Amino acid sequence: QVQLVESGGGLVQAGGSLRLSCAASGRTFSTYGMAWFRQAPGKEREFVATISTGGESTIYEDSVKGRFTISRDNAKNTVYLQMNNLKPEDTALYYCTREWYGGLDYWGKGTLVTVSS
């Protein structure tokens, strides 16, 4: 059983920044990839970014490339999402999830990001 707890969301003006954190339970954090997804009101959940076990490989959804950075600290069992130059369309509930053998098996409850124009 893995528990994921997101934090760091809030209200920010367009152009501002936020850093989201996702803390994972357990002692095997360094053995699996992690990803961030988001779900805006009235829309389906969508992929944002993913990071490999050691952090050497990352992939981003096109609309966040150059603005968001995913990183991880395996010593702290934590994955981060640094979000810069935020736009109103980034408003969503942001979730972290574990990647395991090609699937996504554990999810956090999410942290809300609201970007005002």
Describe what this molecule looks like in 3D.
By secondary structure, the protein is mainly beta. It contains no helices and 11 strands. Strands 2, 4, 5, 6, 9, 10 and 11 form a 7-stranded mixed beta sheet that branches. Strand 7 (68-73) and strand 8 (78-83) form a beta hairpin. The radius of gyration is 13 Å and the shape is globular. The mean pLDDT is 96.
The rough form would be described as globular
- Could you tell me the number of beta strands? 11
How is the biggest beta sheet arranged? 7 strands, mixed
Q: Given the structure, what is the number of helices?
A: 0
List segments where confidence is low: pLDDT < 50 over at least 5 consecutive residues.
none
Succession of helices and strands: EEEEEEEEEEE
Mean of residue pLDDT values: 96
**Helix and strand composition category:** mainly beta
- Share of β-strand residues: over 45%
Characteristic terms for this protein:
single chain, 117 residues, mainly beta, 7-stranded mixed β-sheet
Condensed summary:
With 117 residues, the chain is mainly beta. The chain is built from no helices and eleven strands.
